[in-house]
Design a protein that fits this description.
single chain; 4 domains; Rossmann fold; alpha/beta; coiled coil; 13 helices; five-stranded parallel β-sheet
Length: 446
């Protein structure tokens, strides 16, 4: 026993807290708020839950002052937090630093779902990406003809490669009809086949402004392009589905113009290469030193007196909450009894049965619709099969393989040399057109 290191509970909880805080970086978390309490000290305490689990969250006063709203029970929120332990009770918890309503994240969720779907289908695969042509003489640009993007592209091309011709396929790049106009512009470019490469994009904006470039139909059409496509949507930090499906992604419209044009300033290129090499060397040195600095910062932060003070403040809030809960315990019991009676009355209500019947009716309607759709598809496939069989026995198909049919002056089909005489004129029909010939010799068959 003398050589064993025996922990106290306080020491264990303290070292567990330090381990968690040093091990995990700050994370983003989305969930539903429950058990929200705004303490008299100004600190917020609540639980963040989903359908299967929950975790306790503390958001101290110096952080919740910058929040855009005060959360409420049942609200979906998005928080940025670090992982910690409330030492007096040994409870694992999150210390929230930022909080916002999760409604604005709906578009981002839809974006991630579509991205995952198309990636699984192989639309983003690197093996289907094509390099730019070695010699580019004509560039097609799909964007707004009055926006800043087209001006930037033309300016860069005139400076770097004045000989490149620019063909503009105008389209809206924002709004409800923008995605359909982008699709029409792509169809026009595919039909004309007049450019060596296509640039599609616009200037920067919010996720809502750039949403037309996350359209699934647009992405699938871009994947069918006969020429390489460069996606140049927004600024460098903006990412859209078009960027993933395009052959090349450019950070900005100006960068796209630089990609499709050859710069003749070789000296500047050498300077740029040397500068990048120098930056890479510096970055490597910084990368070697950054973990040491980060570790020292984290250790210093974990032992900062402010952390201990926050723990004590949280304990004070916890004791205050316990006192309030005991004072209102009888009132809460009465409320629970009232709620229980209301729930019993609600279960006996005929409205619940009516709602169940309505859901059953809707399910039957959906099943009927799917059955009718499947029946229609089966009939359509059967019709296509019959058309294909009819085409195989058509005499026109035989003619298309190089055969011809000959007729005499009365229009009768000639199938024997005995039906013609020397000097007679016959007509021969081909798959496309017909011609006349005169008999000069007859060779009877065996």
């Amino acid at each position: 026993m003398q050589n064993k290191d025996i922990y106290t509970v306080s020491r264990l909880n303290s070292e567990v807290r330090m381990t968690l805080e040093l091990q995990f970086e700050r994370i983003w978390l989305q969930g539903e708020v429950s058990n929200f309490v705004a303490a008299a000290s100004g600190h917020w305490y609540f639980s963040l839950k989903d359908s299967a689990a929950q975790v306790k969250v503390a958001m101290f006063r110096q952080n919740n002052r910058s929040a855009t709203m005060k959360p409420r029970n049942g609200q979906q929120v998005l928080i940025k937090a670090r992982i910690s332990v409330y030492e007096p009770r040994g409870e694992y918890q999150l210390i929230a630093e930022m909080l916002d309503d999760a409604g604005s994240g709906l578009l981002q969720q839809q974006f991630e779902q579509l991205k995952t779907k198309l990636q699984a289908e192989g639309l983003f695969a690197s093996e289907r990406k094509r390099p730019l042509p070695a010699m580019i003489q004509r560039v097609g640009v799909i964007t707004s003809p009055t926006g800043a993007a087209i001006r930037d592209i033309i300016t860069v091309l005139q400076r770097r490669a004045p000989g490149i011709e620019v063909v503009i396929y105008p389209s809206q790049v924002q709004g409800a009809t923008a995605a359909q106009q982008l699709i029409q512009a792509l169809h026009t470019a595919y039909r004309r086949q007049e450019v060596d490469v296509l640039i599609i994009g616009r200037g920067g904006g919010s996720l809502e402004d750039l949403w037309c470039f996350n359209d699934e139909a647009l992405a699938r059409l871009m994947a069918q392009s006969p020429v390489p496509i460069v996606s140049a949507v927004g600024h460098e930090i903006d990412v859209t589905i078009s960027d993933f499906v395009a052959d090349i992604r450019a950070a900005t419209p100006s960068a796209a113009a630089e990609l499709v044009s050859s710069d003749q300033l070789h000296v500047m290129e050498r300077v740029q290469r040397l500068r990048r090499a120098l930056q890479q060397t510096q970055q490597q040195q910084l990368s070697r030193l950054r973990p040491q600095l980060h570790n020292l910062q984290q250790r210093l932060l974990a032992r900062h007196p402010a952390r201990q003070l926050l723990q004590q403040q949280q304990r004070l809030d916890d004791l205050s909450g316990q006192l309030q809960r005991r004072m209102h315990q009888r009132l809460q019991q009465a409320k629970l009894q009232h709620i229980s009676v209301e729930r019993q009355l609600a279960q006996l209500s005929p409205l619940k049965t009516l709602q169940q019947q309505q859901r059953t009716l809707q399910q039957v309607q959906r099943q009927l619709s799917r059955a009718m759709q499947q029946r229609w598809q089966q009939q359509q496939q059967r019709w296509q099969l019959l058309m294909a069989r009819l085409d195989t026995v058509s005499p026109l198909a035989t003619l298309a393989r190089g055969y011809s049919i000959s007729f005499d002056e009365q229009g009768k089909v000639i199938n024997s040399a005995g039906q013609v005489r020397v000097g007679q004129t016959v007509t021969s029909r081909l798959a496309k057109g017909e011609f006349q010939s005169t008999i000069t010799a007859i060779k009877p068959g065996p």
